[in-house]
Design brief:
- The chain is of the alpha/beta class.
- It folds into 2 domains: 67 residues, Brix domain (Rossmann fold, 3-Layer(aba) Sandwich); 186 residues, 3-Layer(aba) Sandwich (Rossmann fold).
- The protein is built from 11 helices and 12 strands.
- The strands form 2 sheets. It has a 7-stranded mixed β-sheet. Strands 2-1-3-4-5 form a 5-stranded mixed β-sheet, sandwiched between helices.
- Helix 3 packs parallel to helix 5.
- The chain is globular, with a radius of gyration of 19 Å.
């Protein structure tokens, strides 16, 4: 996807500086906004997306006006559930204890990583791998802003490490048993209709299916288990070798688990 970077109307000097910096980081063109519409800028540059530096943070805008920006999603609600002792399906599927380490191979906007980081606490470690550089930038900047806020998720956000890489390449470079849990949450091959909030991420993100080789490498890297989130009843579980499936009776999603020990 070809991108360009610009600012909102009447940018501050700080916003212009960020726009230049992020354009250099992404290896794309910076285009002064002036009074042009985003559609006109994209058309003139032959771009499929425009990264806009706004006061509230970076926003990625697509050809059809789709907007993608960092937000914690359901993380805060799930955090409250943990506080109230209600548990969390992902934490239970991972069988986590505070202080452990988790490698999230499909970071996306980082909502799952936030919940995991909160649960693991200050002695835990969460590394999130994102293949699409501009999405990684959105998440890194969003986590930075969240970490400096008064949100209950601030400390959890400050502990997440964002890595720009193809997860298979990253896994291959890691030593054996270097994380307690390795996690995959790819785009579902058949999307859940209710998940409309994920539509912009699906538009901009990598939609390739998981490769069996990635699961093989994940099993080498994980000390305890590998977890895959997919649509309930998905054939992906069997294709990728997941026999143990955890899902609530009314749940739309399920977790496949391969336990090593």
């Amino acid at each position: 996807m070809k991108l360009v970077v610009t600012t909102s109307y009447q940018p501050t000097p700080d916003q212009e500086e960020k726009a230049h910096d992020w354009a250099r980081l992404l290896g794309v063109e910076y285009v002064p906004r002036r009074r042009e519409s985003l559609k006109k800028i994209a058309t003139a540059c032959g771009a499929e997306g425009v990264l806009v530096v706004r006061q509230e943070g970076p926003v990625l805008v697509g050809e059809g006006g789709e907007e993608l920006f960092f937000h914690p999603g359901t993380a805060l609600l799930r955090l409250r559930n943990l506080w109230q002792g209600k548990g969390d399906p992902l934490i239970e599927a991972m069988a986590l204890t505070p202080g452990e380490s988790v490698l999230d191979c499909t970071l996306g906007l980082g909502s799952e990583a936030l919940v995991v980081s909160f649960f693991l606490g200050p002695s835990g470690r969460v590394v999130g791998v994102e293949k699409v550089p501009v999405i990684a930038l959105l998440v890194r900047e969003g986590l930075k802003a969240l970490a400096s806020s008064s949100s209950p998720l601030a400390e959890a956000a400050s502990r997440i490490e964002v890595v720009v890489a193809d997860h298979l390449d990253y896994l291959k470079a890691l030593p054996e048993e270097s994380f307690d849990v390795v996690y995959f949450d790819p785009f579902f091959q058949q999307p859940v209709k209710a998940a409309v909030n994920l539509a912009p991420l699906r538009y901009f993100g990598s939609r390739e299916a998981l490769r069996p080789e990635a699961i093989k490498e994940a099993l080498r890297v994980a000390r305890r288990r590998v977890v895959l989130k997919e649509r309930k009843g998905s054939a992906e579980f069997a294709r990728l070798g997941f026999r143990e499936i955890i899902a609530g009776r009314q749940a739309r999603v399920a977790y496949g688990v391969i336990v090593k020990r």
